[in-house]
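quick one
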Amino acid sequence: MAFLLPIASGKGGVGKSVIAANLALALARLGRTVVAVDLDLGASNLHTCLGVRNRQPGLGALVWRAERNLSDLLTETAYERLWLIPGDGLLPGTANLEWAAKRRILRDLARLPADFVILDLGAGSSYNVVDFFLASTEGLVVVRPEITSILNAYSFLKTAAFRLLTRCFPDKSPGRAELLELGRGKTEGRGRSFLDAARELAERFPGEGSVALERLQALRPRAIMNQGLGKGDAELGYRLRDIAKQNLGLEVAFTGYLLDDPALPQSVALRTPLVALDPASPFSRGIRAVAARIDGEPRRAPAGSGGSRPGDVGAAAGGEAAFAGAAASAASGSAAHLEAEKPDQDTVLERLIAEARNRGAEEPLP
Ligand SMILES: Nc1ncnc2c1ncn2[C@@H]1O[C@H](COP(=O)(O)OP(=O)(O)OP(=O)(O)O)[C@@H](O)[C@H]1O
Ligand SMILES: [Mg+2]
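structure w/ magnesium ion:
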């Protein structure tokens, strides 16, 4: 099964699409087969970042014409091993998808014959975005070193964690009612995180509550700081990590620090990923480091594929049962992985920043 890698942000315009395009190409250049998918259904532009003309049918066609297979939408790019599934932003009605349609798309994406399927998501915290983000336990959240971006990323993670929990309880169940009550109140500063609430629910509702707790514990979002400015960046990044830990019980780890690079807007204007145009530019080198890091990690299966209740996940098709099973094993695998990485947590962003600064053009990268 392909490894799904969603890229979200909360705040718009922080670099999701350019990161998706360049990360996809960097992974392809490491020898992986990669599909970049434009899931910003309201405002698709990933094709522009990859230099593909907007002529082919995209995901909108799949939503409207159920007979079409997702693999029929695979579009060639100019780059070896890199494919695109465009978004069809111009088709009305695709911006708000039913959960069943999203689940079908995610199931089919995970079955694509690729190593990585990169999902370029829209901005904001709508359920469309959040549900696609939850296709992996380790989605990427892009932030810029500014407080609004950090706070929007936190709100996004909060919505995602809340959605993950509520999806585990059937409509009108007592557990769902308690969660809605939690959602109505303020979490911040109460000393009781979403994780604490999930632990309590798991005790009271051993079935659904335990699944919810397991899924929340497996969630391990990764952050990329883009357009690094210098002094104070690490402090802002750690603010995100600390508030997510305190209020949600989530461990957010930084996996990349990308410098502001004037060559990047130029590359967008030329409709060519910067990694192809100038692989040694500061941004390209940062992206290639992220690609090498992600490629070097043990591959985990997609998770968070739950239906409106735990039991309905595997009900539809055989493949979907495998999807759900993989989610369960990903949950326990990720917890162990989290333990193993803990010692690095306090220094990792500072280390990434120092690496980005010191990265000379001659330093070899894969
Ligand atoms: N590291 C960087 N250095 C310089 N410019 C950058 C950098 N990252 C992004 N940009 C510029 O910021 C602009 C917005 O980037 P992009 O379209 O990828 O954002 P987005 O998060 O996908 O936006 P949206 O939320 O609208 O989908 C682009 O024109 C891009 O060139
Ligand atoms: Mg975008």
